[in-house]
Amino acid sequence: MSSAAISFWMILLLYAGVSSGCDTNPCMNGGVCVNQDGQYKCQCSQESYNGHLYGGPNCMVVLLGCERHWCQNGATCHPYLDKGRHRYSCMCPEGFTGTKCQTSTTFSFEESGFIQVQTILANAFEPLNVTLSFRTLQEVATLLQCQVEDQLLTLELVDGKLRHSLQRAQDTESILLELPAMVSDGRWHTAKASLHDSMFGLSLRDPSCPGDLCDMEVQIDQAEPELGSGLSGLTVIQNLYIGGRGEQGAGSSFLGCMRDVWLDSRIVVPGLGPRAPIKQSNVKQGCGDWDSCKENPCQNRGRCVKTGWRSFSCECHRPYEGKNCLEEYVAARFGHEDMESHALFRVDEDDPGDSTTVSMFVRTRRSQGLLLVLSNSTSQYLRVWLDDGKVKVQINNFESLLGREAVNDGHFHLITVLVEPESLSLFMSTKSQGSVPIRRVLVQAGDAIHVGGLADRRASLAFGGYFKGCIQDLRMNSRRLQFYPVSVPVSSYRLQSLLEVTRGCTGDDSCSINPCLNGGVCYSMWDDFTCSCPPNTAGQRCEEVKWCELSPCPAAAVCQAHTQGFECVVNVSLRSDSHMITYRGNGKIKRYLSSISIHFRTRQQNATLLHAERDAQFITISIQDGHVVLEMQGEEQSPYVYIHSLDLVSDGQWHRADFSMDNPVLQSSRWRLVLDENWEKPSISFTASEDLDFLREDVDIFLGGLGPNLEGNFAGCLGLVEIGGLALPYYSDMEMNLPRPQEEHFLRTSATPYFGCWGSNVCEPDPCQNGGVCEDLFDLFKCHCPSDWDGQLCEVTLDTCASNPCVHGACRGVSAGYECSCDVGYTGRHCEMVVDVCANNKCSNGGICLRGLKRYACLCPRNTTGPFCRERVPELPWYIDRFPYPKLPVSFCGNERWNYSCFNGGNCSSVEDTCECLPGFAGQWCELELDECASDPCLNGGFCRNLINRFQCVCEMSFAGDHCQIDVSDFYVYVFLLLWQNIFQLLSYLILRLDDDPEVEWNAANDD
């Protein structure tokens, strides 16, 4: 073999020895080839290639392990090959663990709690690595604490920052690591705390946190264990507390959520089982985003305020307290069943302050009563009591303030008294009731607080007596005055004595005395009662009977209710020849009789309405000369009283007269008269007289006259008559459905009167003559006469034409009234209608009808003429020029009777309904144009052209003149010959000059 061949084989063998297995690109589907001692290994791509993941030695096997995987909770499935078998593994998201990510590692502390994990170490210096994720809003909390023998490792939050501390027996001070990042923001953060060898570390794994700020590690001294010490034993117990410091530990517990807590290589999951923590308290699985105030935990209108992770506090409305505002201050009942109740407290603080605020809820129905008194050993310097249902406050027995609103309505009211160094203010709820300046008041330790009254009964009476009602949530400044303490611990003043004050706020049994009358049913209310009354009763105690609902009166009467009973009101009619109505008191009238009211209707000028007398005393109400008059006199030597109305009353209308003493309190007083309720214009007597008490009994009262067999009886109608508010009844008790229940009343002693209001039959026989209609006007008649008769009895003939009934015509009286002879152009019964002369006009060919008084005319268009526009105007020949006629103005004429127009320039005429026309026009309104061609003035076949007030003849070629009367036929022959001669000469000249050049002087205009 030649040396060249040997060299070739040696080079080839050398190249083969150094060649790699990756040179042939054995890895498929995105796999990466890695050389391994002359061999290769394919690292298959973890990303999908052609829609699949691949495995195997050369990444050619489609991995099918994840086609039916059991990964849970959003875990990511990773397929792989294991000895030719398709398998998968689950990569768990944060918060889950297990082969299938089926176990949640998230738990929460909604209140103080912990998880205790205990492990056995070979010695106390084994490495410690704890990793956990957390979220919270707390700024101070213990995340975990690990204790091994005498060394204590703590991971906590201080001012919202992570702090890792180590405390050992041999160290005088704790070793601290603190990261600057704020982590109390409610978001997830991951922290790692470690201790191994001589390194002590703390790190925060947060993407938004730079590594140099969130990763700290320091070197510490590592002491060797001494022989015989606990640290040199074979086994050491390690206790790890998560979320707190254990049952005996102090400090702030963690409130929030944790997940993925790893102790070295062991994950800590709360729950049961062999690997569960040995102890756990107040731990809940999961970590929901829950609003602690969403479910309104604060009751009784309390306001929920978030205070931490899923924690809250309640701002309670008074009178409620407690975590959820469920605890209500116990109300104290004062004066239950009218007992005398009061309480005494002592001020037991050294410096209550410069200002004093006393507030309480008060419920009462009483208008008087003592609420509260502050006193020292010498005086009472603050008093609060009820005055006419309103709160009144007094300082130093001098300055006082009265509230504006009453509080005695049976409801709770919040009363606040604010005593400041220089002013006193009173509030009802939040509404100010006023403020006054005061002298300084100082509350000191040992002062007494009296509530509801004083021990001295006489001293309490000065303020309306003992309080009757309820007081709740009494406070002075921030401290409570509790009559019956609540279970919630609050700052309170000491209760020294409590007398007849009961627990709660129950009312008295007001129905125990049966207050409801007339069968009413009593229902007890708080310190009050209400009566359910039968249908015919009314009033708070059903004391008022609704008599009118029982239909006590006859059908013709109207029931009128009174306080003690009812009256049946009806009208009666009296005639001058009929009997009067007489009355007497029933002997039980006790009231003072100081007034009389009477309703009447009459046409009499003089009559007696009412009269009564006893010895020298008398009263008479009458009508004199149409005026109502009161005459009366008291006992002997009393002055005579006379009053009369200013207006007349004898008009047949209803009137009401009210007589009363001007001052009924006095024994003697002037009297006043008010007519028809015109109270602003009374008539007052000049002299005074006594009342009418002599009418109570044993006196006859005559209604409608002076007495038997005396003249001047009343004729007319009477309505309600009352003396001192007691009616003079027209019905006796026997004539009504129910007797009157009132004790005081007058008795009718005469026969039954005529009910209803009716006068004399003045229309029978009919007094009206000549067809007049009689109208009854109550004791008076009126005749409504026909149009041609007049007079009280229609006995006077009227001039029927006196009213000028004919509008456009002459009136003539006839037996049936009158008759109108209409002017020309008018018609109708009163000549009020204009005659339409154009109604049936005969204007043709578009002619316009012109309306006149007696006739009409037609305004024709230009192509027609004649009275009715029926004649056609000849058309002009083609050779005659056409030019429009001038448009002449129109004049508008007329008077108050008639309006008309003058056409074609005509003017209004002094003669009615005519016009003065221009030459060439005629007609009543110049509507006709005269035809000057009507006489055929044009001769020799000339055409006559009609113009305004003239004509024009258009002649034939052989004639001329105004009438075409001149024959010009020879003249035209001569003219034609001369014309042809001239035309021939012109043509000859033009022919001879055709060959001549043109002679043009271009610049002739510029030659000078």
Please give a quick description of this structure.
The protein is mainly beta and 1008 residues long. It contains three helices and 85 strands. It is 4% helix and 40% strand.
Description:
- Residues 11-18, 226-232 and 996-1008 have low confidence and may be disordered.
- The strands form 26 sheets. Strands 9, 11, 16, 17, 18, 20, 21 and 23 form an eight-stranded antiparallel sheet that branches.
- The chain contains three helices and 85 strands.
- The chain has eight domains: 3-91, Ribbon (Laminin), CATH 2.10.25.10; 105-220 and 232-285, Jelly Rolls; 290-328, Laminin (Ribbon); 331-503, Jelly Rolls (Sandwich); 510-544, Laminin (Ribbon), CATH 2.10.25; 553-755, Jelly Rolls, CATH 2.60.120; 836-929, Ribbon (Laminin), CATH 2.10.25.10; 931-975, Laminin (Ribbon).
- The protein is mainly beta and 1008 residues long.
- The longest helix has 24 residues, at 969-992.
- 4% of the residues lie in helices and 40% in strands.
